[in-house]
Write a structure and sequence with these properties.
By secondary structure, the protein is mostly beta strands. The protein is 10% helix and 52% strand. A hairpin with a 7-residue loop joins β3 and β4. The protein starts with a helix and ends in a 15-residue tail after the last strand.
Amino acid sequence: MRKKEKKNYVIILFLFLFTSLQCQDINNRWTVGIGSGSLLYSENDLKSIGFRYAEQFPRISIARYMFKNVTFAGSFSQSVDDNKKYITFDGELRYDFGTSENLITVYALLGGSLIDTKHLLPLVNFGIGGNLWVYKNFGFAGQFIYKYNNSGFQSQASHVFASAGIVYRFSVDTDGIRRAGKKTRTRLWEMKH
């Protein structure tokens, strides 16, 4: 393996282990994140898919806390290796068991994916995930998903997908962006005189 390839794999491994998007609360409704992921097919699927394992980078996500314990999220990622084509567009509903304002947030998810390997096909997703908030608006997140092929397509099989990343949460209000619960500046004409 060449030195440049080793360096790329080390960076990907670091991002995978220490870096995704998730969770927020009523005061910080939006999150954005960047991370990496990996997927694993069973050995039986090697012949039809052409590979068993693929790394994903970048995995870009956005989520919005909707109401008590419920968040909607969307993500996009693609394979690092051009020989292992795998592009995924994911959408999900997360239920956080009332932990959205905790230092550690856990959730269950239900959603779907459009995956492009040989053909663009839909899959149903089930999974779990969590966040560790290391600062008021920054954290680490991880997720484990089972992507289920309920349609019986031969060119796509059920498989597992894991991701990890860093996440930033913020609020959007009517006056612009209010980050981490801090109000925007008051305009001169809004001040009481």
